[in-house]
Design a protein that fits this description.
The protein has 278 residues and is of the alpha+beta class. It is built from 7 helices and 14 strands. The protein binds D-MYO-inositol-1-phosphate (IPD) and calcium ion (2 copies). One calcium ion (CA) binds next to strand 4.
């Protein structure tokens, strides 16, 4: 796998994020096939020993290289970590995106690391551990897959669109509404997949495998890196009201991401869910 070089002022920090992701991946691989402790945080929301050990390794690498940069990480990172705006830089980390997949040894599952600077997401790294595939992006400096340039598909007709989604799995008050929306999309688009790792869904959209992705209820660590990948791959990523400015949809709990060409069609299908957050 080639080392990504984006020729940007962020290459040094990107290198740190890639090193941290690779260390996290090495830890995750040690747990494959091993019996490990699993704890349910809430219904259907799990944390395994591997999530915790990988996060520790990732944070150690980030803190060693950039001790001045705070971290927002899924498995707990201090009381002030969740603020939306930051003064300066902040890492946003999901040590395993796709924990349920990992628990059942079903690919994909990935490490996701993003760098936020003030009100902007400036770089993103998604390392699909199950396929050993690395996606990197730096704002204004493009997307790379395994160190080579990549970008979104050119599908323009919604009837040809190959889409991904995330099912409701933790809170079910809007499930009927979601299923109605999914029903119209299944009828109007080519097909829909549910792979169980939002960071990978976004990476696969960014590099042209999917034409669109939508999910309600995602957290910032699920999408932070993916937002940069999609934008830099030439795609569009917004909430269900079509707000894609600044940090949106990092904290909006609604993600509609496409190659750009099918965005209006996907948003139109999601219009009844404009006010839904989980
Ligand atoms: C989950 C995955 C999944 C998505 C969930 C996320 P986790 O992340 O991205 O695809 O449907 O909403 O929470 O819990 O495996 O890190
Ligand atoms: Ca996640
Ligand atoms: Ca996770």
């Amino acid at each position: 796998m080639n080392q990504p070089v984006h020729n940007s002022p962020y290459d040094a920090v990107l290198e740190v994020a890639v090193a941290a992701a690779r260390r996290g991946a090495a830890v995750i691989r040690e747990y494959v096939g091993q019996h490990h402790r699993v704890r349910a945080k809430t219904t259907n929301d799990f944390v395994t020993e591997a999530d915790e050990a990988a996060q520790e390794a990732i944070l150690e690498t980030l803190n060693d290289a950039t001790p001045e940069v705070p971290v927002l990480a899924e498995e707990g990172s201090g009381p002030d970590a969740y603020s939306e705006s930051v003064d300066g830089r902040r890492w946003i980390v999901d040590p395993i995106d796709g924990t349920t997949n990992f628990m059942h040894q079903v690919p994909p599952y990935a490490v996701s690391i993003a760098l936020q600077e003030d009100d902007a997401l400036v770089s993103g790294v998604v390392l699909d551990v199950s396929h050993d595939e690395l996606f990197t992006a730096v704002a204004g400096h493009g997307l790379q897959r395994n160190g080579a340039p990549a970008g979104v598909s050119d599908t323009s007709d919604f009837s040809d669109a190959f889409l991904a989604t995330g099912f409701p799995y933790r809170r079910f008050e809007h499930t009927e509404q979601y299923l109605d929306v999914l029903g119209t999309i299944l009828r109007d688009a080519r097909s829909v997949r549910r792979h169980g790792a939002a960071a990978v869904d976004l990476a696969w959209l960014a590099c042209g495998r999917f034409d669109g992705f939508f999910e309600t209820g995602l957290s910032p660590w699920d999408v932070a890196a993916g937002i940069v990948l999609v934008r830099e791959g030439g795609g569009r990523i917004t909430d269900y009201r079509d707000d894609g400015s600044g940090l949106a949809p990092l904290f909006d709990q609604q993600v509609c991401a496409t190659n750009g060409s099918v965005h209006r069609s996907l948003l139109a299908h999601l219009s009844s869910m404009k006010d839904v957050r989980l």
